[in-house]
Write a structure and sequence with these properties.
Blueprint: H1 5-22, H2 24-27, E1 44-46, E2 52-54, E3 64-69, H3 74-90, E4 95-101, H4 107-116, E5 122-126, H5 130-134, E6 142-146, E7 152-157, H6 163-168
Parallel strand pairs: 3-4, 4-5
Antiparallel strand pairs: 1-2, 3-6, 6-7
Length: 171
């Protein structure tokens, strides 16, 4: 039995999709979420004190790293040492913003967590999912790196991301 061109293409697409789902290494590359080269959008979020803020205020002034994150996320926890080290090393040249997703989170819980683990970078709360939607976030542990001109130059998900290499795209 021979396969038609259409069936072959469908099978190839299914294998590619399954490989992406099953391979954490592939998931931590520049191919998920918001498209590379896109102008980074603003999005209404709030401070942990409940004041409204728009992510647009950070874009176009310096390089920005957004981490879509949650206190309960084991992959985020695994990535945390590398993220905190990057904040310490590059924090004077890159604006780091942890965007806490609203699923099973509260500002109070986030405040306790960042105090316990000594976060020094900005943390905002995406109560209504505006940032998650604007950046087409597939899951927590998702990182977006934006250059000084406001263009998305890296996206990745998972604990195996090379944050240093991602930041080299904007330094």
């Amino acid at each position: 039995m021979t396969m038609t061109t259409g069936r072959r293409a469908t099978l190839a697409a299914a294998v590619a999709a399954l490989t992406l789902v099953l391979s954490p290494t592939l998931r931590a590359q520049d191919a998920i979420g918001i498209a590379l080269g896109t102008k980074a959008p603003g999005a209404a979020v709030e401070t942990l004190d409940g004041r409204p803020v728009d992510l647009a205020q950070y874009i176009g002034k310096s390089p920005v790293l957004l981490e879509f994150w949650a206190t309960w996320c084991p992959v985020c926890k695994e990535m945390e040492p590398a993220m905190l080290a990057a904040v310490k090393k590059y924090g004077s040249r890159v604006k780091f913003i942890a965007v806490a997703v609203s699923v099973n989170e509260s500002p109070e819980r986030i405040k306790r967590y960042i105090a316990k683990y000594h976060y020094t970078h900005e943390v905002v709360f995406d109560r209504d999912g505006h940032a998650t939607d604007a950046y087409d976030v597939p899951a927590t542990s998702y990182i977006v790196v934006i250059d000084k001109g406001g263009k998305v130059v890296y996206t990745g998900q998972g604990a195996q991301q090379n944050i240093e290499a991602a930041l080299q795209k904007v330094l």
